[in-house]
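Entry 14. Ran structure prediction on the chain below.
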Amino acid sequence: MLLKMIPEMNKVSVFMRDRRHVETIIKNMQRAGTSTLQVISDFDMTLTRFAHNGVHCPTTHNVLHSSTLISEECKTKMRDLFAHYYPIEINSSMSEEEKIPHMVEWWTQAHDLLIQQRIRKDQLAQAVRNSGAMLREGYKRFFDVLHQNSVPLLIFSAGVGDILEEVIAGHDIFHPNVRVFSNYMDYDEEGVACAFKGEMIHSFNKREGALQNTQQFIHDRTNVLLLGDTPGDLNMADGVQNLHNILRIGFLNDKVDERMKQYISSYDIVLVKDETLDIPNAILNYITARK
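Output, structure tokens:
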């Protein structure tokens, strides 16, 4: 039945633990209508591509890394941090509790390095244009359908919010229904980055961010489509009150054999090395179709 409803589910990249459960949730959301729906998503490697033509695409942090806004010495240190901490972030044999201190160290050191570079706010748009940052194929349809149906899109990102906003603004999809919760730089009177604002968001504390910022959620929208690419993204909707239905879609981009069991046991739909938004778009198309 699910394949008749949404033929795109037949893609070889699609894996589901319980097809009937997925079908029930999608039907419930369609019956309830778009006025009850909100989409909660990660950004880096979820709405953006993980790779293109075999080359890794930059995250929001890497946009700065690949720019002329930071020194070669800083780039080397950022690469060293990635080489040390990324294997920890994706290590399926470690618990989130074990990973969190390492993630705090990583983000703290990376942010300190960036602030030392005296980055100018007015240079960010050009850095994004030069970076090769890419949204997943189908991004325009995704953002436009949500906008046209007045469905809120809340983006929780452990990346750099200033860069994230430049990416979506540069693609002309920063619609009024989009809200971003991320790590933002603070600027002095001359427009030079001098600090990061507020509480740090890393890969594994988005739940705390969600609970501390429950005003971000639309509380009469009790159905949630959640998109993520790490186990830390699974709890981004914990601030939603009176949740009726949630469908969790996970992008498994890397170390597939090592991580598949963990993803299939926690996400309702797992998309393996799928650089498109075909499945979220197909689900939204079904939900938003006029009855």
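The longest strand covers residues 153-160. Will compare against last week's run tomorrow.
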